[in-house]
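PROTEIN DESIGN WORKSHEET
SECTION A - STRUCTURE
LENGTH: 344
TOKENS:
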């Protein structure tokens, strides 16, 4: 019998790859969207990976993280839920609750519906930032036992939303029926091929580099994780008995932005001619952040190297991230016309 999986937020970058890989692996998939006008675009994107024959196993339900309506219907009859939907928070909101409340309240709506429906497991997308010591502190190396402090002075709305939503999820599960279990996935910076240009997510930084819209590379670093590997981690955590009640950091190699730029130039040649080679002084990024609110959350991280262990995901899930250079090249090829994109 074909098992059904609900993936929340079907228009998203990570959700799209979760849907595609689930369909590839024979599951029936439901996904939530805020409007059915998005259905055709999502179908076209995932079918490019999963094949047109998979369309009979994909259905859509209207549900919004900020509303109760639709969630019980969406989850009814599902064996699993991948709760991927969450405000991305690329643009710094004037009101942090614009990011925090949908993430926190939406998580609880999904969990309530999932436990009422008797779903076997919910896998929730959190963020490596939720397992990071003070961002303005010294360089660090942490694991899943660490929790980010949302009262930290320089905490931005996105990092707060991830920590608060994940904490709320674990607190909810303490009194939830034992028939439903929870696992959380904490990714680093998600790159890799895009399925749709409508949902670029964190990939926007690669796009800006390729288009020459960055005057230089700031002293910022990321733990690169491929979106395809991240989707695979969700599916592994969905079915592995050992994953019940566990957090998993899904991170790959740490790379400074200058290293990312050099990798793109090395692999793409003339197609990456506009990628910056000069270093951006810290002061320049701070000045630019006065004009661009989306940069403000980055300034406290200048020059800092906060790394995380992926040993638990490797040991319990058998997860293996691919090389960051491959991820970056495939990401860039999917953004540049005329270059072949990476396969799943």
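SECTION B - SEQUENCE
RESIDUE ASSIGNMENT:
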């Amino acid at each position: 019998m074909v098992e059904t999986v609900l993936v929340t937020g079907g228009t998203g970058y990570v959700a799209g790859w979760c849907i595609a890989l689930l369909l590839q692996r024979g599951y029936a998939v439901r996904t939530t969207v805020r409007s059915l006008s998005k259905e055709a675009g999502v179908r076209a994107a995932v079918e490019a990976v999963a094949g047109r024959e998979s369309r009979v196993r994909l259905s859509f339900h209207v549900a919004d993280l900020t509303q109760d309506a639709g969630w019980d219907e969406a989850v009814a009859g599902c064996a699993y839920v991948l709760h991927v939907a969450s405000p991305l928070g690329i643009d710094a909101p004037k009101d942090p609750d614009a990011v925090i409340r949908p993430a926190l309240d939406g998580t609880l709506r999904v969990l309530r519906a999932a436990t009422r429906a008797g779903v076997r497991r919910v896998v929730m997308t959190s963020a490596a930032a939720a397992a990071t010591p003070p961002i303005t502190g010294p360089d660090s190396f942490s694991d899943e036992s660490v929790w980010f402090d949302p009262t930290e002075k320089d905490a931005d709305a996105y990092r707060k939303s991830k920590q608060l939503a994940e904490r709320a999820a674990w607190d909810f599960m303490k009194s939830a029926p034992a028939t439903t279990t929870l696992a959380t996935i904490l990714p680093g910076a998600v790159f890799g091929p895009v399925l749709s240009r409508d949902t670029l997510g964190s990939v926007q930084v690669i796009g800006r580099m390729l288009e020459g819209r960055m005057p230089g590379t700031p002293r910022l670093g990321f733990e690169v994780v491929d979106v395809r590997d991240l989707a695979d981690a969700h599916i592994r955590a969905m079915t592995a008995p050992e994953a019940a009640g566990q957090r998993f950091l899904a991170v790959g190699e740490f790379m400074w932005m200058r290293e990312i730029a050099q990798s793109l130039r090395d692999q793409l040649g003339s197609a990456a001619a506009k990628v910056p080679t000069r270093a951006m002084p810290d002061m320049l990024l701070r000045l630019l952040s006065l004009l661009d609110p989306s940069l403000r959350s980055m300034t406290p991280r200048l020059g800092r190297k906060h790394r995380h262990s992926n040993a638990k995901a490797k040991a319990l899930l058998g997860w293996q991230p691919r090389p960051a250079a491959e991820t970056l090249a495939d990401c860039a090829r999917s953004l540049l016309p005329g270059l072949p994109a990476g396969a799943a």
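SECTION C - NOTES
The first strand starts at residue 4 and ends at 7.
The chain has a mean pLDDT of 91.
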